[in-house]
Design brief:
Elements lengths: L9 E3 L3 E5 L17 E5 L8 E11 L2 E10 L1 E3 L5 E4 L1 H25 L3 E7 L4 E6 L6 H15 L2
Antiparallel strand pairs: 1-6, 2-5, 3-4, 3-7, 4-5, 8-9
Helix pairs in contact: 1-2
Length: about 160
């Protein structure tokens, strides 16, 4: 699918498109967590040019993941078989921040008993955890998080 939302059968080098695959190891943005990035590749058929697609965004569209990016080399057509490579270094930091939201949620319940998560943001270099409680945390309650995180993470 192209930027103007038209459907095409083939995307050539330099094209920025969205690909829908029958299977994917890429995580789409959802629930406050950022999407995966990486590459898709395929060897050239009959000695032709190899294919490389740089995935820069993945969005959930109904039951499908739309892999948005640019054809860097070669071309991609419907029915091609692609090897998917997720940027695992980036994913690991995102996973750590995702885990941190669970640790914060656990810690809040230990400190104040009842807290309702109202959202979160999980990215590669930061995370945010939104919650509501009946009253503000005291300084002593807030300092509990300095001790609970290393305990939960096995540090």
């Amino acid at each position: 699918r192209t930027a103007d939302k038209s459907w095409i059968d083939t995307a050539d080098s330099g094209s920025t498109v969205g690909l829908v695959l029958d299977q994917s190891s890429f995580y789409a943005e959802q629930g406050g967590q950022i999407y995966d990035t990486g590459f898709m590749t395929a060897p050239g058929a009959d000695g032709g040019e190899d294919t490389e697609f740089c995935v820069t965004n993945v969005q959930k569209k109904g039951a499908y993941n739309l892999h948005i990016g640019t054809v860097e080399l070669g071309s991609i057509k419907i029915g091609d078989t692609l090897a998917l490579t997720v940027d695992t270094d980036r994913r690991r930091t995102i996973m750590s921040n995702h885990t941190a939201t669970h640790i914060l949620n656990y810690g809040l319940r230990q400190v104040i008993g009842v807290a309702d998560q109202k959202g979160s943001l999980v990215e590669q270099d930061k995370m945010r955890f939104d919650f509501t409680a009946k009253k503000a945390l005291t300084a002593k309650q807030a300092s509990f998080f300095d001790t609970i995180s290393p305990h939960c993470c096995g540090m």
